[in-house]
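Schema walk-through. Below, the input block comes first and the output block second. Nothing else is stored per chain. Lengths vary across the set, and this one has 163 residues.
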Amino acid sequence: MAQTVELFEEDYQIINQTLSRLLTESNARIVLLVDRSGQLISSHGDTSNMDSTAFASLSAGNFAATSALAKILGQDEFSVLFHQGEKESIHISVVQSRVILVIVFDNRTSLGLVRLRVKKALEELSTVFENIFSKLGAASGQRTLDSSFASVAESEIDNLFRD
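--- output ---
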């Protein structure tokens, strides 16, 4: 089961700057960042005519289904997905194996430009998420200590009040 991603405020600001720049530089319509469980982390662009929460969830499901296909073919996963439509297309990439970057674009731009700009954004986002996961790894050690302390304390209190 996929875990949701925890973010720190300063990292969230960097992520939003990167996504905003990607939207502008690629001339895309919408840029979404989604965790593997389908939770929308951030969106940029005009999402007024779509349910971005449902879109995020379906994007994660699409990525999961394609990952299952990759495993059947002996691959770990496909790191990039592309769906071309008559009027709009979708480019989906994985960031640090836990986050999905989704770009919706139309004929005002080209797949080549989107891929070029996504490559740069993925480098930036990968660095941010490496830092986030590193912080969370250090923090989870503290949480483990706290939860084990709470468990021992609870057990001791139970022992004190037993008849």
